[in-house]
Specification:
2 domains; 11-stranded mixed sheet; 30% strand; Aminopeptidase; 33% helix; 282 residues; binds coenzyme A; alpha+beta
Length: 282
């Protein structure tokens, strides 16, 4: 895939009702240019996928096939190609978030289910609990800009909590969306961060990786800043406190995803994932 294929990526994302914008596709191509692929049928480009390598762990995303070209084995062929690429790079684990349509395709390729996530959507009301959460914890004082020395600290914290060295993705997200990005410390110690990005249908809040101390404040404050606007948040179903905050802000489940894995399992801390980074890119 090259920048010239971005219109195809946008067309397929719109067909599927997905949220990506041109800036997302540019980020994918800059993160792993040799891991982004286009599938052709009789010389016509009809499919995409993107594979991102974070040290020993890889994520597969953007598996999209044109509606008129489905059930012909295109996703399977493209995924085999992406997996071959990842195996040759020595990756030990491949993960992805599967839609209901994608899960059977991935299972046939050796992926096993790990845990479910739900996408919450809605528009947080202006005077709802998001504001109250932010107000009641004003002392906690989340900080806005992530400056360079902090980036290492945030990346190390994120690696510990997710089991994945995602610095190259985080640096891009922080740069793109400073208005959504916050960190929170206690006694000089990082307790969590949150970021997000604008989308075609809604602002995607996440990732938010945080302790039980910081998660409610970071998530509640982000929701209150998005009052009256459409938002999406992808939350692991085992993170009950995060779900409670989403529901108190008037959000409801739009659809479910299954986090899946091929190869060595990763020990991530699901209770620290208050918002996942989006099923399109792990
Ligand atoms: C999910 C998606 C990527 C699958 O793409 P696809 O190219 O249709 O996938 P494949 O053709 O490889 O496999 C789909 C099914 O067709 C079957 N199939 C493959 N070749 C076939 C053929 N020649 N004739 C009939 N069926 C065939 C496969 O066995 C598979 O069956 P299953 O659903 O019972 O497992 C596609 O439906 C899509 O883009 N959906 C919207 C976006 C989405 O959900 N993406 C997945 C994100 S996780």
């Amino acid at each position: 895939m090259t920048v010239a294929d971005i219109p195809l990526g946008l067309k397929l994302a719109r067909q599927a009702g997905w949220n990506q914008m041109e800036s997302d596709w540019r980020r994918f191509l800059s993160m792993q240019p040799e891991g982004c692929f286009v599938g052709e049928l009789n010389g016509v480009s009809v499919a995409t996928t993107a594979a991102f390598i974070f040290g020993p762990v890889a994520w597969i995303a953007m598996v999209l096939v044109d509606i008129d070209s489905r059930r012909k084995g295109i996703a399977t062929t493209l995924l085999k190609h992406a997996l071959d690429f990842l195996d040759k790079q020595g990756v030990k684990t491949v993960r992805l978030d599967a839609t209901a349509a994608g899960q059977p395709v991935y299972e046939k390729l050796g992926f096993v289910p790990e845990y479910p996530l739900a996408r919450y959507q809605g528009s947080p009301p202006i005077s709802d609990c998001g504001l109250r959460i932010a107000d009641s914890t004003r002392d906690a004082n989340p900080q806005s800009a992530i400056i360079n020395p902090q980036l290492k600290e945030v990346a190390t914290f994120d690696h510990w909590m997710t089991g994945t060295p995602r610095e190259k993705m985080l640096i891009r997200l922080f740069e793109e969306s400073p208005e959504i990005t916050r960190t929170m410390h206690r006694d000089g110690q990082l307790e969590g961060y949150i970021t997000g990005r604008r989308g075609a249908n809604a602002t995607l809040i996440g990732p938010c990786i945080a302790t039980a101390y910081a998660g409610p404040t970071l998530l509640g404050e982000a929701l209150s800043r998005c009052s009256g606007q459409p938002v999406f948040i992808d939350i692991p179903q085992d993170n009950a406190p995060a779900i409670e905050i989403a529901e108190k802000n008037g959000l409801s489940v739009q659809r479910h995803f299954m986090r899946m894995c091929r190869g060595e399992r990763i020990a991530d801390h699901v209770e620290a994932i208050w918002a996942s980074s989006g099923p399109e890119k792990g």
